[in-house]
Amino acid sequence: MQPLVVSDTNIFIDLWKIDLLDAFFQLPVEIHTTDFVINELTKGDIQTKILYYSDSEKLIIKESDGDEIEIIRDLNTRQKGLSFTDCSVLFFAQKNECKLLTGDNKLKSVATKEGIDVHGLLHVFDLLVEEHKILSPQKAIHCLKNLTSSNARLPIEEVESRIKKWQNRK
After folding, report:
1. Of 93, 87, 82, whose CA–CA distance to 72 is shortest?
2. pLDDT tens digit string along 108-141?
3. What are phi and psi for residue 126, nearest 5 degrees?
4. Domain boundaries, the chain
């Protein structure tokens, strides 16, 4: 299994908004995040839900030690525009040579420059619908439409392309 690092809280928050956390944690991958991401999850009951996946060993939460915090702090100083939490997942992805999931364009750009395999929420949808058939195309369309009304970060052309492709599979 390839570990995934979920960053900047946005992947968790977006999946929580459209009630797809259960589907996400059904993916046959090892999902990792950092304690700094967990601390940012303050809306509604999202932190409780995410911690449930940790308790059931579907999510691995990396707690940084003092030396790692210093490295992350240094990275944060050098990478203007990234939050400390962004830098924590960037560091973790580099250290463990694993994929990084984020919807943050600045973090995507920095991660790509650092040679990290980085993907966004639409990649998660592709895994759920296309690769692992955890989510039906109809449910994915419904969820994407709901999410685009509250998430201006999603690339609308890519969203529309997927919706069109999945509508043809009904």
Report:
1. 87
2. 999 999 999 999 999 999 999 999 999 999 999 9
3. -60, -45
4. 3-120, 122-167
